[in-house]
């Protein structure tokens, strides 16, 4: 019985830490949703990538992946934000990050 209780406590702690660090969505899921909310193929610049030149879908997608992964590392090394998606939104789409974040969460949770 003690082993079950200890296992349950450890499992809850693991899940809490996992979610707290923004791992409830993987990089591919976040990247796919960013593609959607930035306008898909009709977007002026795919994935909303404007600071780095990318001419192909694959190049823009790789930059998006890199941005997400780099911000996961930054997120783990900071103490201000408690939610990874909010942290990412403030860096990916600073001027209207709240609207961007709302759209990101909507598509991550409900799909297209």
Quickly count the helices: 5
Low-confidence sequence ranges: 11-22
| Rg of Cα set | 16 Å
> What is the SS-derived class?
mainly alpha
Identify the overall geometry: elongated
**Total number of β-strand segments?**
0
Query: Could you state the order of secondary-structure elements as H and E?
Result: HHHHH
Question: What is the strand content?
Answer: under 5%
What is the makeup of the main sheet?
none
Indicate the mean pLDDT.
83
Indicate the percent of residues in helices: 55-70%
End-to-end separation = 44 Å
Number of domain units: 1
Write the SSE topology:
Blueprint: H1 2-20, H2 27-37, H3 57-76, H4 84-92, H5 97-110
Helix pairs in contact: 2-3, 2-5, 3-4, 4-5
Give an account of the 3D structure.
The protein has one domain. Helix content is 65%, strand content 0%. The longest helix is centred in the middle third of the chain and has 20 residues. It is elongated and about 60 Å long.
Summary keywords:
112 residues, single chain, mainly alpha, elongated
Give a brief description.
The protein has helices spanning 2-20, 27-37, 57-76, 84-92, 97-110. With 112 residues, it is mainly alpha-helical.
């Amino acid at each position: 019985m003690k082993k079950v209780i200890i296992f349950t406590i450890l499992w809850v702690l693991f899940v809490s830490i996992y979610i707290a660090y923004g791992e409830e969505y993987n990089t591919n899921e976040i990247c796919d949703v960013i593609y959607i909310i930035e306008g898909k193929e009709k977007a002026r610049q795919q994935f909303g990538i404007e600071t780095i030149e990318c001419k192909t879908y694959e190049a823009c997608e790789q930059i998006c992946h890199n941005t997400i992964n780099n911000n996961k590392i930054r997120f783990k090394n900071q103490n201000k934000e408690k939610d990874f998606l909010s942290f990412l939104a403030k860096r990916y789409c600073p001027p209207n990050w709240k609207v961007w974040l709302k759209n990101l969460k909507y598509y991550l949770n409900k799909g297209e």
